[in-house]
Design a protein that fits this description.
alpha/beta, single chain, 519 residues, binds nicotinamide-adenine-dinucleotide
Length: 519
């Protein structure tokens, strides 16, 4: 790690409740309804990616603190589970209002800690807010099923009940949206929640926890711990945690899925991606090129749904020079600067890794048509910036194709036909998202049906499903069997209890033991 200057000024809007104002500010834990300073001696610095100045430190919570957090969730569970669904809904209704009122403030925190542009950070909060809004329809989402008169005097009905203590482990790239996929859905179903935000972007989660408390969530219903591997292992192993929601890389997610499952927990894990945009020659050129550039380079490519691979089919390969022209025009700057289209990568290590992968393209025979590695951003010379980069002539055995780059790099491949393009996409192990650009309905339909990817866009470059649906990435982009949010999210955070009941009138009661299975 390099020597980093401590940020001289902490923005005044940094809420003091969850952030102490010592010389190097420390992020607090949220345990049993209180924002408390950790007693740990292990801290992790986190930085403003546009300057690499230290913003603050997150604690690696001690075992005692993590145990206290689970104990608090456990104590809060029985009464929270028994709280009427209408009361839980009321809290969420207040919560969505408070998130709306504070959306810009949360977004500023995201830009400071994560680097994305303010407008994009507002989108981050907004897409999470939509999940909270949808969770307000819990009163109908939680309804069970009934079947009357299954036999004489007998009815069957099922309840959807909470699991107990659930836990979430979040990545750095959507500091608000992804935590909001997790605890609001779990809590509205009657679970209590232990959240571990990404150690690189803790602020938004802390802010959102404060807003939830202000909405009336009882103490202990949400607890927050910080840390890395030890916190993750703690979550995977603690017997009182019933379910884990994870979003992040394959490396961490496959490990967590395996370890959590082995311990008898439900685990849902949204993982990495390599998303292909198939460009047909009949597509609307103007619209398609704009969509490709936006979806490849927006958020500096640090989205699991970034459209990071373009497959140009047939004559569409002639559009490459125009694609490059458009990408060149994007403005790279610190996320809080007016007019910025994309900001920095999260860390110097992330930048170095992406530069390495770009370099591998040259070595392995691809051409770099646009190279953003040497970019200088005035006033932010120490930031982790890479400008839009386009690598063409890419083949499926190259490193830049096999790896998820997670930077502002668009890899361009060519195909002679739709069928060839479909085969390329299906041969790739990931199944998160894909898009086809065409004006032909039959082409779009064929692609949507044959492509083995969980989220498909037809002239929509980033087809993230709205919260009444679920986030349905597939194959190597997902582990588990029940997806995030929507009906699947409700299923994940509940278990069914089925009740078979018989009420006979006096005159039809049994007169002798029934010793055979009823037929
Ligand atoms: P990451 O896996 O490094 O970190 C995610 C979380 O896991 C963090 O809380 C971190 O503390 C913890 N963690 C990291 N390494 C660990 C390890 N070895 N053992 C145990 N825990 C560990 O991911 P990231 O860099 O924060 O996020 C980027 C990745 O997330 C990309 O691969 C991206 O595609 C993926 N992602 C996927 C989705 C999706 O919905 N499919 C959404 C967003 C991000």
């Amino acid at each position: 790690t390099q020597m980093l200057r401590v940020s001289s000024k902490i923005p005044t809007w940094y809420p003091a409740t969850f952030f102490s104002s010592s010389s190097v500010p420390t992020v607090k834990l949220f345990i049993d309804g209180k924002f408390v300073e950790s007693k740990t001696d292990k801290w992790i610095d986190f930085h403003n990616p546009a300057t690499n100045e230290v913003i603050g430190r997150v604690p690696k919570a001690t075992q005692a603190e993590m145990n206290a957090a689970v104990e608090s969730c456990k104590r809060a569970f029985p009464s929270w589970a028994e709280t009427s669904v209408l009361s839980r809904q009321q809290i969420l209704l207040r919560y969505q209002q408070l998130i709306k009122e504070n959306l810009k403030e949360v977004a500023k925190l995201i830009t400071l800690e994560q680097g994305k542009t303010l407008a994009d950070a507002e989108g981050d909060v907004f897409r999470g807010l939509q999940v909270v809004e949808h969770a307000c329809s819990v009163t109908s989402l939680l309804m069970g099923e009934t079947m009357p008169s299954i036999t004489k005097d007998m009815d069957i009905y099922s309840y959807r009940l909470p699991l107990g203590v659930c836990a979430g482990i979040a990545p750095f790239n959507f500091p608000a949206m992804i935590p909001l996929w997790m605890f609001p859905m779990a809590m509205v179903c009657g679970n209590t929640y232990l959240m571990k935000p990404s150690e690189r972007v803790p602020g938004a989660t802390m802010f959102l926890a404060k807003l939830l408390q202000d909405s009336g969530a009882p103490d202990g219903t949400l607890n927050i711990i910080h840390g890395q591997h030890e916190a993750v292992n703690f979550i995977c192993d603690h017997p009182d945690i019933k379910a884990i929601s994870f979003v992040g890389s394959n490396q961490a997610g496959e490990y967590i899925y395996e370890r959590g499952s082995r311990n008898g927990k439900r685990v849902q894990a949204n993982l990495g991606a390599k998303n292909h945009g198939v460009v047909m020659p009949d597509a609307n050129k103007e619209n398609t090129l704009n969509q490709l550039v936006g979806a490849a380079f927006g958020a500096a490519g640090q989205r699991c749904m970034a459209l990071s691979t373009a497959i140009l089919v047939g004559e569409a390969k002639k559009w490459l020079p125009e694609l490059v022209e458009r990408a060149k025009k994007l403005r790279v700057n610190a996320g809080d600067q007016p007019g910025a289209d994309l900001g920095p990568l999260i860390t110097p290590q992330a930048k170095e890794r992406v530069c390495h992968i770009i370099e591998s393209g040259t070595k392995e025979g691809a051409s770099i048509l646009l190279d953003g590695r040497k970019i200088k951003v005035k006033g932010y010379e120490k930031g982790n910036f890479i400008g839009p980069t386009i690598i063409s002539g890419v083949k499926s055995n190259m490193t830049c194709y096999k790896e998820e780059i997670f930077g502002p790099v668009l890899v361009v491949m060519e195909a002679e036909s739709l069928d060839e393009a479909i085969k390329m996409v299906n041969d790739n192990p990931y199944g998160n998202g894909t898009a086809i650009f065409t004006t032909n309905g039959a082409t779009a339909r064929k692609y949507s049906h044959l492509v083995d990817v969980g989220q498909v866009g037809v002239n929509v470059p980033i087809p993230v499903p709205l919260p009444m649906f679920s986030f349905t990435g597939s194959r190597s982009s997902f582990r588990g069997d029940t997806n995030f949010y929507g009906k699947q999210g409700i299923q994940f955070y509940t278990q069914l209890k089925t009740i078979t009941s018989q009420w006979k009138e006096e005159d039809s009661l049994l007169s002798a033991p029934a010793v055979v299975m009823p037929t």
